[in-house]
Amino acid sequence: SVCLLFPIAGHLSDTYGRLFIMTIGGISMMVLSPILIVVVGQGNSAAAFFAQSTLGIALSFWGSPMCAWLVESFDPASRLTSVAIGYNIAQALVGGATPALATLSVDNLGPYSPGLLLTVFAIISLIGLRCVAPHATINQEKTVKDGILVSSVPPARPSSYEHPAIPRDDASKRNNNEFIVNGEML
How many CA atoms lie within 13 A of 87 on its CB side? Predict the structure, then answer.
């Protein structure tokens, strides 16, 4: 269900906004996770399938818009580093600790307690979404053409940008309108 709904959730986030669709996914995970974990644990295969599918739908509403939201939330000059460091540290901490926390919660609180763990992570994620989201629109321009969103993020750098640490040869420094054919500039 996650893979099937990613394109639909992405389209909905383009239409209604990433923050709105991610909030729906986060609230769905927060509210439904404990209930659906109980359903999965009941032993009925069909009910477990539908419960897992529902969790997948909620996860799609969070995960699909998140890809574009991460890119849009940072200034182009620092985007790659910001997204890479922030996302991967969060994945390592939460993804690495979750199996141990789930095992610990099952031992101490009961077999359905991982649903509460998902609720806690959903609350933390929604708080993070609200803390970062106001900054997501600082350097964006929305261009609408014939009712379709054409561009929501300005280009990262002008085409003539040269990185100071990367040496360029003379040919690459020439005007983009000049062409070299057989060693002669046209």
Answer: 15
